[in-house]
């Protein structure tokens, strides 16, 4: 485990595997933690040998959970940029799952010197509407903050299932709520528009049975849209071989 202080008393932490450059930085989704989701894939023969940082964003996993942090997509991206700069990393390959994909897009747009390429794993790229009882960010964002903190968190934790709950229970409640609210609100311009305008290599992984909206537009903008069979939303867990192959192949276009 490694840590870096991004402001007094506030640390981002990660699990690191040593290896060759350029480094790969792995970002988790909402309520998750990078090491439990990515460790098996990082150790896969197609990906082994590269310096790999399975990094937890503020509020999640093993990183600190400051209650005064905004937990916006921009806030997460800026905090990661500070951490990467202090570590001494520039032009890393960023792999982001779900919310981590949205943060990765914003990081590349706001701090282009930090990002060599993007691999987005079934990412959020569009705003959404909150809906009570919906899975993930839409359901969380349907609460008011006070209600979520008092009872909504416990209800969501019961409903998400044992795998997601295992990491979600480590999240700060304010972090989980505010991150979900900002994720469904999205950025301006939207994450999709930011992604389309980036000029670095970009890969968009999706479950074979759930092609992304606007796939033709993504492809026309130079985004490699790759379907991974036999997966749900957690592609890196459901099909480690398929995920590793897709991540390893994108290196050829960098």
TrEMBL record:
AB hydrolase-1 domain span: 25-128
Coiled coil: none
Classification via InterPro entries: AB_hydrolase_1 (IPR000073), AB_hydrolase_fold (IPR029058), AB_hydrolase_sf (IPR050266)
Record's keyword terms, sorted: Hydrolase
Molecular function via GO: hydrolase activity
Keyword check for Transcription regulation: no
Keyword Hydrolase assigned: yes
The protein's name in its UniProt record: Alpha/beta hydrolase
